[in-house]
């Protein structure tokens, strides 16, 4: 979502004659777009500002603005502790960024803009331009969260659940398509809580799937509790909907799920997976896990390991519990750091084995890959299969934006290597 927000910020500042640069030594305005989900984010801001200060010691000071969830959570504290920062702008106020920059240029004053104006934000932002002509683009459809898991800052930093209108989203998709997008990744902190005038995520997916040039649709991140029957059905009906579902569970222990306020049990989660497999047996799953949550015993951890084995996730994202200031879990008694680290290590070792087994199984098999970029000016092309696995092939044809059938000839933990299968009868997907 931060990547999506950063792209919108680039579109926005274009209006006041700022342009994106990769030359970080010669910058007029720095925007540090931050994430606050785990610790060290705030320290990273101070560290980055220190680096900018050093770089510009003998040059004109650039404008420095902190945006995103660290700005929302820390606000005034950042401005008071680091005088080099000119403004803090929360994730629901960044449509005001141009005025903020102009005010700083003119009056040289400090600005704190951390109100929740999510409706105003989307009303004011220009339609995303996809100026980089990405084949695969993000589209934020929903923001915020009403669930209040006890460990999480999102409800405090991004505010309550908000869904954008279907018309606005279709327009934005059409605009992305004009500039080369062929795959759309629908984003939301609880993307399947999407609801606009009674229309759910499944409806939006069906509407987007009617856009001819959109060939693939993905969405992330789903909450198990918002996985309604119509969304399950969409995985049967909508062929453009890709068969990888990111479905965070956090823990395999009912006791810990309860302590987290996750609102679902392991039985409910397993039943949901069963239902999804029934409508489409090709569906694979990825998940997030928090290891070492307060109160997690050896048995709770073993239950998490059991779940990991049972589902056979093709990808997992696991982190040690990080107490976030202001959340209820931050006040709970932490478990021993050493124990958490040991558990994380054994969890990740097993998750890696499961992932590699899955990947080795792809050897000599066929998959459909949508190509996004050529690499290093060589005849190498990067793309993704239906399960979001990165695939590299060699080709003299420009494959950008095209879908090709590929045979996987080699795998490692990050990449699949393939060769294009010639099929003269295949329908052309050229962009
Ligand atoms: N809404 C999604 C859900 O409920 O599953 C997850 C979105 S959350 C922004 C992304 C992930 O960050 C979570 O799934 C969780 O694993 C991780 N996370 C959030 N707070 C955390 C914390 N305090 N410590 C460690 N991991 C955390
Ligand atoms: Fe955070 Fe997701 Fe829980 Fe909301 S549902 S509080 S975003 S982990």
Compact summary:
This protein is α/β, with parallel strands linked by helices. The protein is built from 14 helices and 19 strands.
Structural class: alpha/beta
Which class of the largest domain in CATH terms? Answer: Alpha Beta
In total, how many domains does the architecture comprise? 3
Q: What's the number of extended β-strand segments?
A: 19
- Give the overall pLDDT as a whole number: 92
Give the count of helical stretches.
Answer: 14
Determine the CATH superfamily of the largest domain. tm_1862 like domain
CATH architecture of the largest domain: Alpha-Beta Horseshoe
Main sheet specs:
5 strands, mixed, barrel
What does the model show?
- By secondary structure, this protein is α/β, with parallel strands linked by helices.
- It has 3 domains: 2-115, Rossmann fold (3-Layer(aba) Sandwich); 120-360, Alpha-Beta Horseshoe (pyruvate-formate lyase- activating enzyme), CATH 3.80.30; 366-425, OB fold (Dihydrolipoamide Acetyltransferase, E2P), CATH 2.40.50.
- The protein has helices at 2-13, 41-55, 69-74, 76-81, 97-107, 118-124, 154-157, 166-178, 201-209, 229-237, 254-260, 266-279, 298-311, 337-360, and strands spanning 29-34, 63-68, 87-89, 111-113, 136-140, 142-143, 162-163, 183-187, 195-196, 199-200, 216-220, 244-246, 284-291, 315-320, 366-375, 380-384, 390-394, 403-411, 416-420.
- Strands 15-16-17-19-18 form a 5-stranded mixed β-barrel.
- Helix 9 packs parallel to helix 10 and helix 13 packs parallel to helix 14.
- The longest helix has 24 residues, at 337-360.
- The chain is globular.
- The mean pLDDT is 92.
- The structure holds S-adenosylmethionine (SAM) and iron/sulfur cluster.
